[in-house]
Design goal:
Blueprint (H helix, E strand, L loop, with lengths): L38 H8 L4 H10 L12 H10 L6
């Protein structure tokens, strides 16, 4: 969920945030309490134009919490460990 990120990166690299659908909902949607469902956040990500760029950003910046690019923190961890370099 990029809108609450404090990471410093060039503006161009974050242009996908301009169309981020998560900007239209509250942060609790993308940072659910432990054990809560991430289904609705993932559904919103599925309709987001910047999904792939968002996921790549989260992986590159080792974002540990919340849903990014349609994947939970556990799913991003599995993807990272699998060695997959491209998604989409
Ligand atoms: S893919 Fe999901 S988390 Fe990423 S910008 Fe889009 S809605 Fe937000």
């Amino acid at each position: 969920m990029p809108m609450n990120s404090t990471a410093q990166t060039p503006d161009r690299a974050l242009s996908w945030q301009e169309t981020a659908l998560c900007a239209q909902v509250g942060p609790e949607f993308f940072f659910p309490a432990p054990g809560s469902s991430t289904r609705e956040a993932k559904e919103l990500c599925g309709a987001c134009e910047g999904r792939t760029a968002c996921l790549e950003y989260a992986l590159a910046n080792d974002e540990r919490f919340g849903v990014w690019g349609g994947l939970s923190e556990q799913e991003r961890g599995m993807l990272r460990r699998s060695g997959v370099q491209r998604y989409g």
